[in-house]
Each structure stands twice: as structure tokens, then as C-alpha cells.
């Protein structure tokens, strides 16, 4: 599988990152088999979070077995020092490892959160301390909020090394600044910040909760995904062709095999096809930004 430099981190990540939330929906044996499948396809970058149910625990056995082959991203939704320090230690314990390769501030949505994170006694202090202590190697950020807020965070966190944000033909076709994630991509590229794409496979937002109860959704995702091999390959090719360093696989285990196949066959996407894909989905509701986050 193709690899790309993850910004200036020194990490060469496969063009697909395994979104390990998919393991939460499986029993341990199934989780072990899925990790083996992902590794068999050559994927070397995994992403997990403590809010993903038991995903950390389910990932642990194979992560420890293949530790040298996996660059691991983890996250925290904590905004203050004490909570973030606890979460780092808890994730290390649940994963059963000594060092997390990339630790990310998770789901930044509001300016006030950024103020808290970057202030004295904020989560960033705990993350920097953990880095100094060897518990983590790199510092990142994830958001499906306003692109301007992400750009502000890049300005204010001078040791930020990666950013994870949405990019797909739906948002690429929107003209409003609130969907201008391409500006984030350009800024990251100019500053040597690694880029990870999420929601590459989003078809649109789920219908309102009244229309489709969460338990009735056919996929374990925050959004309705495309779900045929052809559509998945098209969406993967589009995201990877935008210049992202790596594209994160969707959260539902039923889709993982198709996404692995798409990533293994990636050969680029010409600009004409990119433009026509944007036009095809231009009138779809954008799945981001959204007010209801996990």
C-alpha cells in the first residue's frame, strides 16, 4: 500500500489509516482477525480513542504483538490538565503499551474549548508533559468543526504536528467558508503538519433522530456511509487525491474489507473525475459541520 510522509513527524503512513472504533462492535476473536486483516493489507497507521467503547481493549492484544508495525494515534476529549493527564495514563494502561505515537486533542468544536486547552492548566500542558516523559511522541488535533477554528488552533499551538479533519466531495462542493477544509489542507502542507482525512465515505447526515432511531441505523457510523465497492473506491480515491497524507477508514466493521481493497488499489483520480464527482453530490446535505458530536 502506498505510504506518504505524515507532515514533518518522520512517520511514513499508509494512505489508509485504520479507524479502530470498528473493533468495538466485535468480540475479541473477531477483533484480532480484523487487525490481522488490516495488517495483511500493509496498513501501518491505526487510530483509536477512549470514547470508542472497548476499542482500546480490543486493539490491545494484537497491538502489543505487532507494536513495531503500528503507528498508533489516540485522543482525548478532556480540555483541562487533570483530566487529560488521567486519560493518557488510562489509555496506555488499557492498550497495554508504554508509548502512544500520536496523541490528539479530540473533536475541537468551540473557541472557548481552544482557550481552555491552551491556557495554563489546560490539556495541552498535560500532553506536553507526557511527551517530555516519553509517554507520547507527537501532538495532534482532530475536529469536524469550523475550518477557521482549526486554522486558529494551528496558529496557537506551535508544536502541533498533525490535524485530522473532514474531506469529501460533499464539503469540497460547498462554497461557504464553514466548509473550507481545503484551506486547512493547504495551511498544513505549507507548515509541514500531517493531515488525516475523516468522513471520506459520508453520503450525508443521517435522517433526524425521530425518523431513524440510532439502534435502527444499518451502519455503526456517525453518518450514513456509501456502501458499495464502487462508491467506496471512488470516495477513497477522491480523498487520497486531494493530497491528504492518510485517509481514516469508517467506523463500521462491515465496510472495512471494501475500504482496504480500495486503498490497496489506489492509483490516483484525475481532476476531471474529481470535478464530476463534486458536481454529482453538490446538492447533498453536508455531513459536517454538525452540532451533535460523539
Mean pLDDT: 91
Count of extended strands = 12
Helix/strand structural class: alpha/beta
Query: How many helices in DSSP terms?
Result: 11
Rg, nearest Å:
18 Å
Give the proportion of residues in helices.
40-55%
Alpha-carbon distance between the termini? 30 Å
Succession of helices and strands: EEEHEHEHEHHEHEHHEEEHEHH
Number of domains: 1
> Would you give the CATH topology?
TIM Barrel
Strand order of the largest sheet: 3-4-5-6-7-8-9-12
For the largest beta-sheet, the strand count, sense and barrel status come to: 8 strands, parallel, barrel
CATH class: Alpha Beta
Shape: globular
Q: Ranges with pLDDT <50 over ≥5 residues?
A: 206-212, 290-294
The CATH superfamily appears as NADP-dependent oxidoreductase domain
CATH architecture: Alpha-Beta Barrel
Protein name: Oxidoreductase
InterPro entries: AKR2_Oxidoreductase (IPR053135), NAD(P)_OxRdtase_dom_sf (IPR036812), NADP_OxRdtase_dom (IPR023210)
Domain NADP-dependent oxidoreductase: 16-209
Organism: Haloarcula mannanilytica
